[in-house]
Amino acid sequence: MVLNVGTLAPDFLLRSHTLDKVSRDDLLGDKSMVVFVPYPFTRVCTTELCNIRDTMGSLSDAGARVVVITAHATSTNAEWVRQNQFTFDVLADFWPHGDVSRRYDAFDERFGYSKRVTYFLDGDAVIRDVISSDVLGEAREFDRYGEALAAY
């Protein structure tokens, strides 16, 4: 289950792959996509983020800021960003392990990973849409990203 559309997104403060602190409040004023991914360096997660990287122009034109959250360490995320030339922040929800993912109802307690969920927030950090995949090895419907951003 995911958080409801129309609710305020939970606050967070996490370190990016560059060790900068990024919070929910940093997203205020702009549309944003908060993208939770299970595992760096895996086929589905890398493909999903490469799709975002390759369409950043159109996502930015739609006014979206992208932040990605994993339950992995900053050093892991930094290498993943370097190898794939991602142009957005990849945040470490490593310790306390999965704390932010839990607040967004995007954490698998049994296996300890962030679920495949994307929250679309308006400039006031209110959730306007959610795209998720309930199956670990299945990507989200990427074609819906543009539709979700255009709807608010």
Strand order of the largest sheet: 2-1-5-4-3-8-9
| DSSP strand content | 25-35%
Specify the number of helices: 5
Please give the largest β-sheet: 7 strands, mixed
Integer-rounded radius of gyration: 14 Å
On the 0 to 100 scale, the average pLDDT is: 95
Helix content: 25-40%
Q: Topology as H/E string?
A: EEEHHEHEHEEEEH
Query: Distance between the terminal alpha carbons, to the nearest Å?
Result: 23 Å
Q: Catalogue the unreliable spans.
A: none
Structural class: alpha+beta
Number of strands: 9
- Global morphology: globular
Short description:
The chain has 152 residues and is an alpha+beta fold. It is built from five helices and nine strands. The strands form two sheets. Strands 2-1-5-4-3-8-9 form a seven-stranded mixed β-sheet. A two-stranded antiparallel sheet has the order 6-7.
What keyword list fits this structure?
152 residues; alpha+beta; two-stranded antiparallel sheet; 5 helices; 9 strands; globular
How would you explain this protein's 3D organization?
The chain has 152 residues and is an alpha+beta fold. Helices cover 28% and strands 27% of the residues. The protein has helices spanning 43-54, 56-61, 74-84, 99-103, 143-150; strands at 13-16, 21-23, 31-36, 64-70, 89-92, 107-108, 113-114, 116-121, 127-133. Strand 1 and strand 2 (21-23) form a beta hairpin. It is globular and about 35 Å long.
List the helices and strands and how they pair.
Blueprint: E1 13-16, E2 21-23, E3 31-36, H1 43-54, H2 56-61, E4 64-70, H3 74-84, E5 89-92, H4 99-103, E6 107-108, E7 113-114, E8 116-121, E9 127-133, H5 143-150
Parallel strand pairs: 3-4, 4-5
Antiparallel strand pairs: 1-2, 1-5, 3-8, 6-7, 8-9
